[in-house]
Amino acid sequence: MSFLIVMVLLLVVMYVLMIRPQRQRQRDQQSMIDGAGVGDDILTSGGIYGTITRVEGDDVVVEIAEGTSVHMTRRGIAAVLPPEGEDGEEPEIVDAEPFEEPDLDEVPVTGGEEPVTGQSDAETAAADRR
Questions:
Q1: Spatial CA neighbour of 61 closest among 49, 50, 75
Q2: Distance in angstroms (rounded) separating the CA atoms of residues 66 and 58
Q3: Is 18 a member of any domain?
Q4: Is 40 within the bounds of a domain?
């Protein structure tokens, strides 16, 4: 009798901790996909970003580049992306300092290694490694 009670308790705990939250996530995902409409930015399951331009029942037409559209099913939508900024505005881009490449002639050789400059040096270096 006590074995039966333990099994029932384990099943209840497993349902509460694993199955119920997973079903909730699935419902949220499905409602997000079903609510996607014209003008929404999406991410496809193939990793392509695009904008929905037309909805045809269970199919959608997604513009992935200017003048390039693809037809796909709603099941191919992985996520509906939020607007890029507040009130649909583009986020402000802050200019950073330009990157300056270091002068490679002035970079010191580290780790006690010496650069190989000639064929005889290369043969000596190769012999030292053996």
A1: 50
A2: 24
A3: yes
A4: yes
